[in-house]
Structures are given as C-alpha cells and as structure tokens.
Amino acid sequence: MEDLTRRRALSIGAILGLASVTSTPSAWSWSSAGSIAGTDTVTDPFQVWDPDADDVAARLLADGSIPSVNRAWDSWVRNKDALPSGMPGYLTEYLRGVNQLPSWADPELLAASEKLYKRLNSYLFVSESLGSGILSTVIPREARAVYWSAGGANMKDRAAKTFTFGYDLHSPTAWQPSGYFIVSANKTRLVHSVVRNLLVTSPRFMETADQPKPISNGDILVTFHSVATVAYDNMKKWGIKLSAKEEAADLHAWQVALHLLGVQRQFIPASWAEAHKQADQMLWPIVSPTVEGISLTKALLGYIEDATLGLTTGFVNEMVRYLIGDKCADWLGLPRDWVSRGLIQAAWPTYVAFREGLSPIVPDGIYLFDQFVRGVAMMFLNNGTSPTQTPITLPAANRPG
Ligand code: HEM
Known about the structure:
This protein is mostly helical. Helices cover 60% and strands 0% of the residues.
C-alpha cells in the first residue's frame, strides 16, 4: 500500500477539508442502568482501558517474548485446546483466568445464536465485510490506530485476520468445545493490549492522538456498534424476520464477545434499545474521514474485489454505498455507478425476501446477487480459524516509517 507521507497527508487533508468535518463527541451521559451490570452510574468508557491485559502485554514486549508466544499460539485454536506450552508463566496464568465464559453467560442463548448465525451468516458477512469493514475507515481513532500499527502496512492480511473473528463468532460451533471463538477473542484482546503499548511509541500515531492510549472500552463499543448494531438494523431493513429469542441470542453472543475483549460489564448494553442509545451517542456523531481511513479503504476494497472476482468494481462500490450511505462513501471518494445503484436499490430487498422464502417474486439480477453473496461468504470461509489459515498473532512493532 502506498505510504502516507506527512506532506501528502496534509495536502489530501487540506483538499478534503478534513479539519472541518472531524467532530468532537459530546460528554458521555449514558447510564450503566442500561448495562448488564445494572448499576446506575455514568462512567466515561473512553477513559477506561484493560489494565491487567495491558500489563501482561507490556511484559511480553519488554522481555522479547512475542515471537515465541506467536509460535506457541499456532497450536492453540479451539475452545477445548489446553493452553499451549512455551509461553511465559505470567501469560499462562493470565490466560487461565480469562480464557473461559463469564458466570453470567447463558448457554441456551449462546446455542440459539449459533443456530441464528447459521441461518443468516451470508447476510451478516455482507453487512460486516462491505458495510462495517468500510465503515471502520470513517471511525477516526480506529482508522488511525489500524493504519499506524504493523498490520496497517498489509491490509490484505490484516482484513483476513479480522474476518477470522467474525467467522468464528458466526460459526455454528462458535461456543462449543470444537469451536474457535473463545480463543480468537482472547488472542484479539491481547493483540489490542500489545497495540496499546506500541502505538504510544509511534510519533506519527501520537501526532493526531487525542487519548493517552488507544482502544479504550468506549472505542471497542464504537466498533461493536459499527458491526453488530448496524447488522441488526440491516436485518430489519432487509425484511429478515427475527423472533424475540433470536434477537436476544444475537445480543447475548455479542455481550459475551465484548466481555472476552475486556469491556467492563458496566458498559455492555443490556438490550438492543440500550445499544441503539449508545450508538446514537458514541458512533454516529464521530464518523468522519481521515487521510489514513481513505488509504485503508482503497486497500480493503481491492481485497474485497479480489474475492468477488467477476463482479464489476462499480457494482462493489455501489453495494458499499448502499450499506454505508452516500455521505460516508463520498468522503471516501467512491466513484458512482448509477446502473448498479438502480439495480441494488430496487432488487436487493426483493432478493433477500426471495432467498428467505418470504416472497415468490424472482428479483432482477438474481445471479449477480448470488455470485456476490457467495464471493463474500467464501472470503470469510477462507479465513475461518484453522492451523493452516490466517492466524491471529501479536505484533512486535508498529508500522515502519
Ligand atoms: C487487531 C477485532 C476494536 C484497532 C484486531 C484483531 C481482531 C480485531 C480480530 C486481530 C487481527 C489483526 O491483527 O488484525 C476487533 C473487534 C473490535 C475491535 C472485534 C471491537 C468489537 C478495535 C478498536 C481499535 C482497534 C476500537 C482502535 C481504536 C486494532 C489494531 C489492531 C487490531 C490497531 C492490530 C493490527 C496489527 O496487527 O497491527 N482487532 N477490534 N480494534 N485492532 Fe481491533
């Protein structure tokens, strides 16, 4: 990917008038009465990080253990796998404490989430890859953190690792002993902790940083909304029928996922209504373009187009526009394709209704949509966790340069 020199970044920023669109979020006012902790306090999640995991990560960096831990992690992939040997004792001890479901996890709801995701995974993959993947590039703190960390230099590999998380969560065996999700989530949590320790040493990242260290509990929630709350809304918009139990199961899977990522219970929303209140306060007011985000979008779109080979760039761009809205798409400079736009807008909801068996009307462009959905699903499937596929690993340094 093209490197972003400071001069170039400044000139693109000036052209886009970025300074004028970057907004400051208002003071945090969501009460944890709406959280799974149910305590009525107002604590700013953007000032809370993950101290225990961050300390472990600091020690791993200090004693040079990252490469050996990554080697040890190769064989540690399934929920039932014993913790691997070859890791420092303090890491093993930390993982022993966190590599398990919380006491409040509800096995029945988790099992229901596996069934739900099996039914919906192709739509979820569309929403989460093209929609949330690109939306993440207009979340300024996330775009900058991703760009300036090691993974930012190889977005294809980084996107593959991130899709591993989505694939493992939406797998029909996500929470079972043979599933992968609990391990993937714990690895991700430690990646974030290592990144918190590393990025503060990156002069380029710190130039625009507005927090003492990145990836606070609040930032993780922002990403959660950009993925899960947006997917929930898309399912509704596309006319997909969800029972009350399925909605609860979807939320619960994410509640446990957030816990495994180190988010405190006082911030984890207890209902979809509370999730929407949070998203209205923490996600939508802060979306805006950054030079780093624009650069990441280009790399991500290239990756997605490879996977949906055979579909025109115009179609993929318009699918992104459909998912993230024209305002964000314009910021990212996505070109228009009015023919694809017309087709998608008119036929995608009909396509979903037809494939869900809710309507007998065969939509225009059915083969195009089938090909698209299959391409996106394959992209996720190819990145499911297995010892031979893109493993989640700890970075040992920032992006060079
Ligand atoms: C790494 C998922 C929130 C920044 C990762 C990885 C996954 C992941 C699976 C490991 C794969 C990889 O190395 O790319 C998630 C999920 C989130 C979340 C599910 C919330 C629900 C965030 C936020 C930020 C962030 C809020 C920044 C503000 C990063 C960075 C990396 C990373 C910089 C490391 C990339 C590297 O290896 O250099 N994340 N993430 N993430 N994440 Fe997140």
